[in-house]
């Protein structure tokens, strides 16, 4: 039996990496590098979907602009195909079984296609970088709410997978419990896992306290500790600070405990961390 097949990460059999091309000078996708190295660590099949946002359409009123838009579309399609080809080449060199797709679709079909495809995989890896039209965040939200799959949201600068030290952001909610269970392959493979509860006692105990959840993880072979913190600077900032102190490689958390509408209007932990995360986020809803 191979070494990969004996690791907890071998539970991951297929991964989908999605990247959205909005411009010819888009920054390099961290999600692709992260997905490639995660696929290598787990022995999983990798699919890279490098999609370009098509501007042109069939509406008569855009006739005066259609020629210019068609030129842009062709250029973005070429960029998307080049990204896919480069990913396939890197996968071949690393001995990873990889397939690629480079669809050219208008909005919102480009995001809907990604969410539909995500249902066919164990896990989805997406970029969490700032974009002009925030397509990255839209893709993450749509996949979480529509695919039934968890997402690893990768911020810029994290082009290689690492999971030695992991924080589980725990608020006692159903979303947090699902995220932790979905992330079990990563938690079991980690050297150290810390359950971090951020909030006052009443908020944390609306659900299940971290001290009661820890034995469940320990029974799965997770090396887990517990840390209850007060949100002096807000929940998101407290998690960012603790991730630095713990030297975390990943934060596991339930996404959008409140509705997306409420998070949009008054802010929320998920949106705040997606805008500025110190490490990749394992998200489940």
Automatic annotation (TrEMBL):
Domain UspA: 238-282
UniProt xrefs under InterPro entries: Universal_stress_UspA, UspA
Taxonomic placement: Bacteria, Pseudomonadati, Pseudomonadota, Alphaproteobacteria, Hyphomicrobiales
Name of protein: Universal stress protein
CDD domains noted in UniProt: USP-like
Family: Belongs to the universal stress protein A family.
């Amino acid at each position: 039996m191979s070494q990969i097949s004996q690791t907890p990460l071998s539970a991951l059999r297929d991964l989908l990496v999605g990247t959205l091309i909005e411009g010819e000078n888009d920054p390099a996708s961290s999600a692709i590098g992260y997905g490639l190295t995660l696929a290598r660590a787990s022995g999983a099949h990798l699919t890279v979907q490098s999609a370009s946002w098509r501007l042109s359409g069939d509406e008569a009123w855009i006739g005066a602009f259609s020629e210019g838009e068609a030129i842009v579309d062709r250029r973005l399609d070429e960029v998307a195909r080049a990204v896919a080809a480069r990913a396939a080449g890197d996968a071949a060199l690393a001995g990873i079984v990889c397939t690629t797709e480079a669809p050219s679709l208008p909005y919102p079909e480009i995001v809907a296609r990604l969410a539909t495809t995500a249902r066919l995989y164990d896990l989805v890896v997406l970029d969490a970088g700032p974009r002009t039209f925030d397509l990255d965040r839209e893709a993450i939200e749509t996949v979480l709410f529509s695919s039934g799959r968890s997402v690893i949201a990768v911020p810029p600068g994290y082009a290689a997978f690492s999971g030695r030290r992991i924080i589980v952001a725990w608020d006692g909610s159903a979303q947090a419990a699902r995220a932790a269970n979905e992330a079990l392959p990563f938690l079991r493979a980690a050297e150290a896992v810390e359950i971090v509860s951020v909030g006052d006692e009443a908020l944390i105990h609306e659900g299940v306290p971290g001290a009661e959840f820890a034995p469940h993880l320990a029974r799965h072979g997770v090396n887990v500790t517990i840390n209850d913190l007060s949100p002096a600077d807000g929940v998101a900032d407290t998690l960012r600070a603790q991730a630095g102190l713990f030297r975390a490689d990943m934060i596991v958390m339930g996404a959008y405990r409140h509705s997306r509408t409420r998070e949009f209007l008054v802010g929320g932990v998920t949106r705040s961390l997606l805008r500025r995360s110190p490490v990749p986020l394992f998200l489940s809803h």
